[in-house]
C-alpha cells in the first residue's frame, strides 16, 4: 500500500515521508533500500517508523507537510482529518469497508463458491475491500452454503512459507483476539457458526483463525455492520434483485462490491445501483494499477492508482498573461485629464 502513495508522489515531483504501520515497518524500510539502490537522491523519500500517536499524529498536523494520503481504519482517518483541518491541509482517505457480494440463482455454483471464498479469505481477510457480506439467492442458498463449506474445508491453513498455503495467521495477537471476539459476539447475538469459528486444531502457535462462515445473521448484528479484518464471512439470503441491492447498500461503508450472475444485463443494473467505489463482476478482488481505487461514504474519498493517483499529488495553477499592447482602460487615465 506504501507504493500506491510513494510512486505517484515521487512521479509528481514531491518529496515524501512514508509512515508505515508499526506492525509492518520492515517492508517499507526495504522499499527505501530499493529506492537508494536505484539512485533516488537522499531526502526525497523518508521513512518514519513508530506508533500512530507518536509518529503519525505529529506528521498529520505538521505545518510543513502539505498533504496527507492515509490508508487505515475509518476511526484513525477521522482523527487525521480533524488535525489536518486545523491547517486546511488536503487529505485523501482510503479507509475500511464491509463490502457485499451478491450471488444470483443462475450461477455455476463451484465458480461462485471459489470467488466468494477468495473475496473474503484472501490475505486472511485482512483486506479493506474484502467482500465479507454474502447475499445469496434463497433458491440456491442451501446448496450454495453446502458447497462453500466443502470448499472451505479444502483451504490449506499453514505457515505462509509452506508450499500451497492459502490462509496464514492474522497480523498480531491483538487482531487475533479481536476477530475471535467478533465471532463470539455474533454467536451471543443469535447467529450460527456454520464453519470455522476458532483457531485451527493442527496449529498450536501463531495467530491463526479458521476461515469462518456465519449464517442466521440479521442486519442489526455487529457482524453484519462492522469491519472484522479477518477471515469471517457473514451470510444473508434474498428473494429479489431490489432486495439484494438494498441489503448490499445497507452499510456506512462504500468501498467494494461484487455481483456474480450469468445475466450480464442484470450485472450492469446491479453495478450501477451499488453505492461503492470499486465493483467486481463475476469475480472479487482482482486489482489493476491502471484503474482508480477508492471508496465513498465512511470508506473515504480520493482515488489512488492510475492517472487519478497522480492527481492526488498535483495542484493546478492558473496563469493569465496579458498579451495586447492596449491599456486595460477600466479607469480614466490621468494622461487624458
Ligand atoms: N481503502 C483502502 O484502500 C484500504 C487499504 C488497506 C487497509 N485499509 C483499512 O485499514 C485498516 C487496517 O489497517 P490498520 O489496522 O493499520 O489501521 P489503523 O487505522 O489502526 O492504523 C493505520 C495507520 O495509522 C496510524 N495511526 C494510528 N493512530 C493515528 C493517529 N492518531 N494519527 C495518525 N496516525 C495514526 C498507525 O500507526 C498506522 O500506521 C482497515 O480498516 C482497512 O480496511 C483500507
Ligand atoms: N488489492 C488492493 C487491496 C487494497 C486494500 O487492502
Provide a descriptive summary of the structure in words:
The chain has helices spanning 2-11, 25-37, 52-61, 74-85, 109-121, 141-153, 173-188, 222-225, 241-248, 264-273, 306-311; strands at 16-18, 45-47, 68-71, 91-94, 100-103, 133-137, 192-195, 212-215, 232-238, 256-260, 278-281, 300-301. By secondary structure, the protein is of the alpha/beta class. The protein has a seven-stranded mixed sheet, sandwiched between helices. Helix 4 links the parallel strand 3 (68-71) and strand 4 (91-94). The model has no long low-confidence stretch (mean pLDDT 97). It catalyses: 3-aminopropanal + NAD(+) + H2O = beta-alanine + NADH + 2 H(+); 4-aminobutanal + NAD(+) + H2O = 4-aminobutanoate + NADH + 2 H(+). Its EC number is 1.2.1.19. The active site is at 94.
In short:
It contains 11 helices and 12 strands. With 337 residues, it is α/β, with parallel strands linked by helices.
What's the helix and strand layout?
Layout: H1 2-11, E1 16-18, H2 25-37, E2 45-47, H3 52-61, E3 68-71, H4 74-85, E4 91-94, E5 100-103, H5 109-121, E6 133-137, H6 141-153, H7 173-188, E7 192-195, E8 212-215, H8 222-225, E9 232-238, H9 241-248, E10 256-260, H10 264-273, E11 278-281, E12 300-301, H11 306-311
Parallel strand pairs: 1-2, 3-4, 5-6, 5-10, 6-9, 8-9, 10-11
Antiparallel strand pairs: 4-12, 7-8
Helix pairs in contact: 5-6
Bound molecules: nicotinamide-adenine-dinucleotide and ligand LWGJIB7O.
The ligand NCCCC=O binds next to loops.
Amino acid at each position: 500500500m506504501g507504493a500506491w502513495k510513494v510512486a505517484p508522489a515521487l512521479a509528481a515531483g514531491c518529496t515524501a515521508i512514508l509512515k508505515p504501520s508499526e506492525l509492518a515497518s520492515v517492508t517499507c524500510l526495504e522499499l527505501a533500500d530499493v529506492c537508494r539502490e536505484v539512485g533516488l537522491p537522499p531526502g526525497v523519500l523518508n521513512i518514519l517508523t513508530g506508533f500512530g500517536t507518536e509518529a503519525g499524529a505529529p506528521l498529520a498536523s505538521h505545518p510543513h507537510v502539505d498533504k496527507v494520503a492515509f490508508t487505515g481504519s475509518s476511526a484513525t482517518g477521522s482523527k487525521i482529518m480533524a488535525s489536518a483541518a486545523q491547517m486546511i491541509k488536503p487529505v485523501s482517505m482510503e479507509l475500511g469497508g464491509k463490502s457485499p457480494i451478491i450471488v444470483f440463482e443462475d450461477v455455476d455454483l463451484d465458480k461462485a463458491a471459489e470467488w466468494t471464498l477468495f473475496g473474503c479469505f484472501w490475505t486472511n481477510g485482512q483486506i479493506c475491500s474484502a467482500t465479507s457480506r454474502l447475499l445469496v439467492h434463497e433458491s440456491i442458498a442451501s446448496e450454495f452454503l453446502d458447497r462453500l463449506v466443502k470448499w472451505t474445508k479444502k483451504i490449506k491453513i499453514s505457515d505462509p512459507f509452506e508450499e500451497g498455503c492459502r490462509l496464514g495467521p492474522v497480523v498480531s495477537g491483538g487482531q487475533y483476539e479481536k476477530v475471535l471476539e467478533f465471532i463470539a459476539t455474533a454467536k451471543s447475538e443469535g447467529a450460527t457458526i456454520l464453519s470455522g469459528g476458532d483457531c485451527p486444531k493442527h496449529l498450536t502457535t501463531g495467530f491463526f483463525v479458521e476461515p469462518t462462515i456465519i449464517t442466521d445473521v440479521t442486519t442489526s448484528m455487529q457482524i453484519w455492520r462492522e469491519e472484522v479484518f479477518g477471515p469471517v464471512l457473514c451470510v444473508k439470503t434474498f428473494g429479489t434483485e431490489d432486495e439484494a441491492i438494498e441489503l448490499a447498500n445497507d452499510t456506512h461503508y462504500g468501498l467494494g462490491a461484487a455481483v456474480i450472475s450469468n445475466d450480464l444485463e442484470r450485472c450492469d443494473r446491479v453495478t450501477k445501483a451499488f453505492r461503492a467505489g470499486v465493483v467486481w463482476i463475476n469475480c472479487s478482488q482482482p486489482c489493476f494499477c491502471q484503474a482508480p481505487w477508492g471508496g465513498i461514504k465512511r470508506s473515504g474519498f480520493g482515488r489512488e492508482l492510475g492517472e487519478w493517483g497522480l492527481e492526488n499529488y498535483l495542484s493546478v495553477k492558473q496563469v493569465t498573461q496579458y498579451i495586447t499592447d492596449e491599456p486595460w482602460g477600466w479607469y480614466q487615465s490621468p494622461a487624458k485629464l
